[in-house]
User: Which sequence fits this backbone?
């Protein structure tokens, strides 16, 4: 696919917070040795995207405010420069869009799910921050859709970011939890983040 078409898909289906717009590898400031290593691994992943084999996905896991989303979007920009189809989605916003897709001619659920399935690289940011229960506290269609998306990406390159551990994610997604986590970790390298929230620096 040529870069122009890849850009159209990115702009149509990506859901990106405004504060990430200027995020790059160059302006990421590691807070400690662990986040420095995380940056190096993420940049290596982006630079070698065309040559990835075996473990071709990343899971950026750790507390909030350590730059996981910043690095994930930095990967997005670098891989897009290769002419690849990349979709970056913040999970809470995705579910809002899916809910609003019913009766909405601009976004059809099937189109969104197909775009996620077919992308050269899918980035799911802030996994676990979305609300997945219905009014009775039971698993809703949201957990079904999350499973559907992740299941469609098996053996394809992905980047996931989350504040939660594997047990917390599995619990959150109820009956789908174990399968969601299992498929997420298929061919995925874990990159841990630890430290203090950089947004509170100086407080």
Assistant:
């Amino acid at each position: 696919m040529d870069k122009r078409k890849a850009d159209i898909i990115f702009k149509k289906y990506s859901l990106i917070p405004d504060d990430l717009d200027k995020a790059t590898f160059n302006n990421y400031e590691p807070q400690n040795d662990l986040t420095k290593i995380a940056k190096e691994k993420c940049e290596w992943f982006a630079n070698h995207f065309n040559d990835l084999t075996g473990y071709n996905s990343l899971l950026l896991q750790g507390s909030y405010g350590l730059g996981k989303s910043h690095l994930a979007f930095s990967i997005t920009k670098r891989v897009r420069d290769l002419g690849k189809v990349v979709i970056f989605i913040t999970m809470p916003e995705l579910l809002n869009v899916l809910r609003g897709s019913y009766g909405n001619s601009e976004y059809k659920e099937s189109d969104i799910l197909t775009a996620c399935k077919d992308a050269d690289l899918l980035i799911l940011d802030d996994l676990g921050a979305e609300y997945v229960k219905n009014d009775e506290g039971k698993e809703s269609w949201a957990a079904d859709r999350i499973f559907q998306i992740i299941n469609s990406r098996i053996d394809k390159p992905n980047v996931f970011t989350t504040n939660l551990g594997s047990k917390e994610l599995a619990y959150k997604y109820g009956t789908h939890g174990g399968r969601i986590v299992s498929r997420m970790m298929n061919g995925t390298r874990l990159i841990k983040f630890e430290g203090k929230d950089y947004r509170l620096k100086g407080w």
Notes: The helical segments are 3-13, 33-47, 68-80, 91-100, 109-118, 141-152, 166-172, 177-184.
